[in-house]
Each structure stands twice: as structure tokens, then as C-alpha cells.
Design brief:
homodimer; alpha/beta; Aldehyde Dehydrogenase, Chain A, domain 1; Aldehyde Dehydrogenase, Chain A, domain 2; 2 domains; 5-stranded parallel beta sheet; globular
């Protein structure tokens, strides 16, 4: 159909396209069983998969083992979600001869799967944002054939995961072509351009995400592209919070920065603290109390890039090391890091903004010391574009909303909310709960599409589109829209006769 | 901030940006009162506005008067919708010490307005898709400051409507800058590029819609762009339906094609009928029974373009006139049309596809005569990209789903649904009910974003984005997420302890 695909890729895309009607026609229960079978199979293969993952990524056994569990849990959550059917937002407007604009026909609306989707997997979550990660789980739950582009950082693990998943899906009777794995960025780009592909998902860098988003938007028929890109996750800590629990904040911070060698899109990159506060000393003390082990970075490219960013930050005017940390390279070219925390005054942050504000992907974070009387809410738009998260640490008294600075804190919360997808209080942004209300997204460049989430049950909505049926005979309606509601999904019903009073309450 | 705006446009955008926090902070009830005040004021000014509209657009008094009513009704519907709050999709996940992946924090998710939005209004609905049309209603309901780019086809009406609306909004206490009107395509483009603008809406041609969508996607910070573009709305009529009610189908069809001089994005452009059926004769007979009046086309450019498309279609191989119709131009250059209906065999449709399949914006429609045994479902992807609607006319017996051709009809319904936003049965696609389950959208090029609708209550979702609050003290939560639920909105609550059984039913 396109003439640009290699024979191998052509057959991958053709298989996905051929599978689309059959996969869309599977019942919710059938898809749920298939997805749970994948989850169970991944947990059965955990020891084998984690061993490959440790070798390919340098992440620890504990981290990877927990990530397999997380991956299985989120697959199972999507199995329940897709059968529950609330995400279909099924609506039924009965025919209404008394409608305000003349006779209204019977109109019923549900959501249908988009068709084949390509998912570009991430380097830093070799399970949870990779071959059978959250994006893949929501794509399959939605009923869309899935093509995963493996990340070059863990090709062997990708193949091994794909083998487990493909067997489970086939065993559960899913159509051939429901799930396929490809390797190579160029192959991914060519598939993304193919007219049979109806959406893309991605987790990775701003540069690559932008490249792919531009390709998706400039196709003859543009498609949605859901990229989760970069974030520096600003944090604000009040003087009262530090007075109340400096040690607890310092150790939580250090754990959040150091975990997974800081290679997380939710790592707290900047912490605004009152100038002269004891928090920098508390961070140094927390570090001295229990030295953090050296951790391998994911791959040599990431390590070199982190080392460069770290050097640039340490060289900026007024930057002082609170915890020096470091990066060393072994004979194989792999980089090994210990956490670095630096401090800088707000004035020097302004001077060095260009060098300091860009994401440093690795275990480094910056304390910004802010003079009393600074308008904290104004710092968000001054320094940042969109972010995945923003955090505020308050004292117990401030949390009541009744302290003298309450209005200032409210303004800060509003300013944070205006630029992020998740606002945290008295916690740390790493560790994203997989749960119905989760929002993992945010304004550009945190994501390419801030109306969506890549974690939590709403993630399924990215791969569906609404379709209305007007005056459809029952026999030709999707199950979710039938009067008898055989699928048992939530149906929002608009009765006849209500339209004549629309708006009347507001006169 | 950008350096590219004229001083006048700079002040328009600056006012919208300045209004954003204050407008977002208005209560739902305050916004509802303001929107209902606009609806009431438009109806009070109806006679004056309709008079301007008739002169500028050539549409009839009955049509424009009905359109003012529709516009007022949809504003009032959005007033109720925004107070109801279901569109906020408020979710509360209580903290869960027994969560499958370790302790889950308290997470609560709602939707916040995007910020200033520009809406490019349409030529063919000078009220309902124009200054205070459906897009504007949903933008204001969402709490986003609105800049409308007036359509060049009705500038005076746009100014008059804006004056009425601005006075009503100011009278209801909305912030200065909540609503502004600008003129000129170049001005619209410059505003769309401004970083303070957070989304765009548009109703119009594929060419202009694509241009604007590409601008929105290629900004340094891309924004969502909701364009409703072109559609030819294929219709399929079975032999049994024709045998049952040829006359009724013919007259309904003719009314749908002729209404508003066919200048509707939902006009049925193609009707597939069995070769040798009596429907063409029935259409000619319906036409002969009551001559349709000549109707002025919206503007000389549209009229010239329609005349060219009509000539090309009539010149294509095998095309015969069922109703010849015509276009004439008056001394002022305005075009006046009577409806044209042509018929062509499926074979000749294939030969002339390039000339025939493109939208003819005006009162013209094509009957395609299909040999017995043709796979109807395959015609959708063979001839069409995305469409707003697709229609099937069945006999009463076929509607039971128990006739010999039921599987074939099911396949056709699935094929239609795969390419449209609304599937109709035994009706006509013009006349789009403004109601909760409505879906006015469809895959490219029907729209730039087929996950959304521009008619119906879901339209408000286009101008909101989700934000989650983690462990937020009650005092810092939006009203929709508080335990006491002072706003009285639907809240979906995930209790603690449920995660350990996720997926267990599907083993």
C-alpha cells in the first residue's frame, strides 16, 4: 500500500491491519482473559527475564523484579477496566418528540478501537514502559492490534518478553497479528508513516518524541501521537515544613533522586528552599549517614550525556556541591554514578538558567535558594514549561489552609497545577501509582498531548474514538448501547422531554 | 512575548491571557449564568441579527431564525452541562496501605481549563458554528478565554453578534478579556502561533483546516487543534428498502440535498443503490411533484467552486442527470443554484473516481448504481477516507437482523462505523441534534482529531486537561475533589483494598 516498507515490515503492518476487525470483535471478557494470561506468564518467567534485564540495563534485581510485578498488576487492572466498560462513556438519548429543536432521533454513542497502533518503548523501564508495559496494556485492552518498537537498550529482553506475551495471547485465542515486535528506529519511523497505522505511543526524550510527533502530524492522514517526554519536576519547600521535619524531607529527597540512578522522568530536578535554610545541611547529613551505592547508568550514551550535563551544572556561576557525587566509566564504556546534589542562589539560577534548567537524566538535583519575599508562583512560568509533576512541602499547620501565607500558597498551587499533570503534597514524585485517578502527563514538553495519561485506567481512552448510532435497530447496535445492556456497562441515559428546561435554572 | 503580533493583536492576546486565571476561577454557576445570559440576549436580538445574516449569507429567514434558536439552546445545554460536572470525570482513589504495589497515596483527578483558545468560525452556519456557536459555547463553558476569528462571509453579523455577547458576559460579571473578536485570516494565524494560546477550533475546508492544523502542530509548543473539515456522507439503500418505500426515501433525500442549498458538511453526497432500482425515477418524480426554489449560494467564491465541481461531475464518463439543476450568476457575482442529482454505474464511478469522489459543496448528489453481488462493505475503504456520517436504509424486515442478508448488512455497518463518527439508519445526515450522545466528528479528513466531537455535550472536553492531586490537604483541593463534594459533581471513588483482586476473575 505504501511502497516504502521493506517486505518484512510490510508483512508486519499487513498482519496488524488484517487482525484489526477480528481483534475489535473479541468480547471484553475474551480480551481480559488474554491480558491476564500475559500478566501471569510474565510473572512465571520473572527470574529468567530479570536476569536478562539486569545484564542489559544495569538496573538492580530488586528494581526489575518489582517492575515485573508492577507490569503484571497494570495488565490485570486493564483487564478489569475493559470489562467494566465505564471508559466507553456509553450514552443513550432516547428519541424525543418534545425536543427543543424539533423531533430528536434516538442517538447512542460509544467508543470503538482506532485500529493498529505502534508503541515505541522506553529505555528506563524495560518492563513497565516497554514491550508489555502500560502503553501496550492499554492498546491491547482497547482492542487495537499492537506493534512494539523495541528499545535498543534491551533488545534481548524485548525478544524474550515478546515471546512470552505472544504465546499467552495465542493461547488465549487472540487473532494472529494482535501483537508483533520490531527492532530499529528507522523501521519504527516507516511503520509510523504507514496509512494503516492509526496512532502512536512513545516514552523517551524530547528530541526523539518531537521528531516522531512531527511525523505523525505531517502524514497525509495525521494520527494522534502520545509521547511522554521530558520533565524536571520542580519542588517547593516552605520554611515551616523545614522547621518541622528537615531530616525527613532530606532523606526522602535523596532516596527519590538516587533511585534507579535518577533515570526517571519523575525525578525531582529542582527544589526551591528558603535562602539560609538548614535543608542543604540536612541533605548532606542524610547522605553522610548512609552512603549510597554506585549505580550503573542504562547505557554509555546516557552516561556520557549525564556526565556532560553534570559538568556544565557544576561549572555554572554560584553552584556549590552539597553532595559531590560523580561518574566514572569502566573499560566497557559503561558509566557508573553516585548522586550529586548542588545548591545555587535564585540570582545565580537566573544567570545560569540556560545551563541549569534543562533535564539532567541521572542522579543529580539542584537546590535553589530563594530570598524571603520572592513570589513563588511566578517562578513556575519564569523557569519552566510543562512538567509531569510539581510538588509542595508544607507544615501541618500550613496544610490547614489557615495560616497567614495561605493565599500565597494557594497561588503557588494554582501556578503549579497550570503547568503540570500531577500536584503532590509532602511527598516525592518518583513512584507513580497505577490506579484509576492517576495522571501521568502534562503540558508540552512533558508530553505531546496533555489531555491524556500514560499511567492509570484513563490511558485506554487514547486508543478509542467515539461513534454515534442514530435510530439504529437493536440488532445492529454494539452491545454497550443496547437497551437490554447485555455487557452490563454504565449507560448515561438522557430521557425525552428534558431539553425544554435547559439553562432555565440560571436566569 | 512573541514580537510578531501587531500592537492590536498583542493586546487581544494579552487580555485573553490575563483573563485566564480569573475566568478559570469563576464558579460553575457563575459561568452558567453568563452563558444563559448570552443565549437570552441573542434571542432578544434575533430579528436584527437575522436581517443582517440574510443579507450577508443568502440563507433564508426560516433557516437563520431556526439557527438562532439552536444556538441559544446549545448555549443553555452547556450551562447545565458545566454545572452538572460529569465532564470533569472526577476520580478519588483513597490512600491504600494494602495496595498491590505497596502503599498507595491518596490521588484525586479532575480537569482544568486549558487557557486562551482561538475559534475560527464557519461560513455556512453564521450563528451555530460562528461567533457564539457550539465551539464558542464549549470553550466558554470549559472556562477558557475565547478569541473568535470572524468568518469573512459575514463580518457585519459577526460584529453584531459579538456586541450582544460581550455585553451579556460583562453584565454577568465575567472578567474583561473573556471574549474577543478579531477579523482576518492572517490575524487568526498569528494568534494561533502565539505561545499564550492553548488550543484552536475550526470549522471549514480541508485545505484551510490542514494549514491551520499544521501550524498548531509545528509550534515550538504544539497545541491541540480541533478542525471539522470535509465530508461526503455515503448512503447505502437496500433493494428491500426501496421496494418498501421508494417515494419516502426519494423525497427525504431530495430535502436533505437541497436544504441550505446543500452547503452543509453533512449533505448526503453519494447514495449507493442496486443497479436497475426505481430510486432514480422516484427522485425525479419527487422533484417534479414540487419544484425546489432557487437558492443563493453563500458567496461568489463558493458558487464558482460549486459550478466548477458540478461541470466536472456532469462531464465524467457515464454520468447522467436525474435532476439537472443549475447554477447562474447575477450581476453582483452571486451564484444561485437549484439542486442537481446525477446517477452513475459503479464501473463508471471507478473510472471517474478522481473527478467524482471529492466533495461538491452545494446542492448536488450522486446516485451510484451497484450490480447485484457487490461487496458493499468493501466500497467504503475503496472510495472514501474519513467521513462525519454514513447511512444505511433498510426494510423493516431487514432491521430485525434476521434476514438472509443479515451478515452482509452487519459487515456493512461495521465498515461504515470504521470510517465515520455517526452511523444513521433510515434517516438523513443533515440536521445534527444537539444532545449528550451526539458525535459530530470522524477520521481524517472529516476532522483533524477524531477522538472529539464539535456538537453535543462532550465537545467541552476538548478544552480541558486532566490534573491529579496527590495527598493534597482538603484546603488545597479543587471543589470537585473534596470529600464533602460542595460542587455536587459525580465522583468515581476507588476504595482501598481492591487492587489485590484485579484480574482474578479472568483466570
Amino acid at each position: 500500500m505504501t511502497g516504502t516498507l521493506t517486505p518484512e515490515l510490510e508483512s508486519v503492518v499487513a498482519r496488524a491491519a488484517a487482525a484489526a476487525p477480528a481483534f475489535a470483535a473479541t468480547s471484553p471478557e475474551e480480551r481480559a482473559r488474554a491480558i491476564v494470561a500475559v500478566a501471569d506468564a510474565l510473572e512465571d518467567a520473572k527470574a529468567h527475564l530479570v536476569e536478562i534485564g539486569m545484564r542489559e540495563t544495569g538496573l538492580t534485581e530488586a528494581r526489575l523484579s518489582g517492575e515485573v510485578t508492577r507490569t503484571a498488576v497494570q495488565l490485570r487492572l486493564f483487564a478489569d477496566t475493559l470489562v467494566d466498560g465505564g471508559y466507553l462513556d456509553a450514552r443513550i438519548d432516547y428519541a424525543d418528540s418534545d425536543f427543543a429543536l424539533g423531533v430528536r432521533p434516538d442517538i447512542r454513542r460509544t467508543h470503538l478501537p482506532l485500529g493498529p497502533v505502534i508503541n515505541f518503548s522506553a529505555s528506563n523501564f524495560p518492563f513497565a514502559f516497554s514491550v508489555m508495559g502500560g502503553d501496550s496494556a492499554s492498546i491491547l485492552a482497547a482492542g487495537c492490534p499492537l506493534i512494539v518498537k523495541a528499545h535498543s537498550g534491551h533488545p534481548e529482553l524485548s525478544d524474550a518478553t515478546a515471546e512470552v506475551a505472544a504465546a499467552a495471547l495465542a493461547g488465549a485465542g487472540m487473532p494472529e497479528g494482535t501483537f508483533q515486535l520490531i527492532h530499529g528506529r528507522e523501521a519504527g519511523v516507516e511503520v509510523l508513516k504507514d496509512p494503516r497505522i492509526k496512532a502512536g505511543a512513545f516514552t523517551g526524550s524530547i528530541a526523539v518524541g518531537r521528531l516522531l510527533a512531527d511525523i505523525a502530524a505531517s502524514r497525509p492522514a495525521p494520527i494522534p501521537f502520545y509521547g511522554e517526554l521530558g520533565s524536571v519536576n520542580p519542588v517547593f519547600v516552605t520554611a515551616a515544613a523545614i522547621a518541622e521535619r528537615a531530616g525527613e524531607i532530606a532523606s526522602g529527597y535523596l532516596t527519590s533522586v538516587a533511585g534507579s540512578a535518577g533515570q526517571l522522568c519523575t525525578k525531582p530536578g529542582f527544589v526551591f528552599v528558603p535562602a539560609g535554610s538548614e535543608l542543604p545541611d540536612a541533605v548532606a547529613a542524610a547522605h553522610a549517614a548512609g552512603e549510597l551505592p554506585e549505580h550503573r547508568l542504562l547505557d554509555p550514551r546516557i552516561a556520557r550525556s549525564f556526565a556532560e550535563r553534570r559538568d556544565a551544572i557544576l561549572a555554572a556561576q554560584g553552584v556549590r556541591a552539597v553532595i559531590p557525587g560523580g561518574v566514572r566509566f569502566d573499560d566497557a564504556g559503561q558509566g557508573w554514578a553516585t548522586p550529586t546534589v548542588v545548591a545555587v542562589s535564585l540570582d545565580d539560577f537566573r544567570v545560569g538558567k540556560e545551563a541549569l534548567v534543562e533535564e539532567a537524566f541521572g542522579p543529580l538535583s539542584i537546590l535553589v535558594e530563594v530570598p524571603e519575599g520572592t513570589d513563588l508562583a511566578a517562578l513556575m512560568p519564569e523557569f519552566y514549561e510543562g512538567n509531569l509533576t510539581g510538588t509542595l512541602h508544607l507544615s501541618a499547620e500550613e496544610a490547614t489552609g489557615e495560616t497567614a501565607n495561605a493565599a500565597e500558597l494557594q497561588a503557588l498551587v494554582s501556578a503549579i497545577a497550570a503547568q503540570v499533570g500531577r500536584v503532590l503534597f509532602n511527598g516525592w514524585s518518583t513512584g507513580v501509582a497505577v490506579t484509576p485517578a492517576q495522571q501521568h502527563g502534562g503540558p508540552w514538553p512533558a508530553t505531546t498531548n496533555d489531555a491524556s495519561t500514560s499511567v492509570g485506567t484513563s490511558a485506554i481512552k487514547r486508543f478509542l474514538r467515539p461513534v454515534a448510532y442514530q435510530n439504529a435497530p437493536d440488532a445492529f447496535l454494539p452491545a454497550a448501547l443496547r437497551d437490554a445492556n447485555p455487557a452490563g456497562v454504565p449507560q448515561a441515559i438522557a430521557p425525552a422531554g428534558e431539553s425544554k428546561s435547559w439553562g432555565a435554572r440560571w436566569r
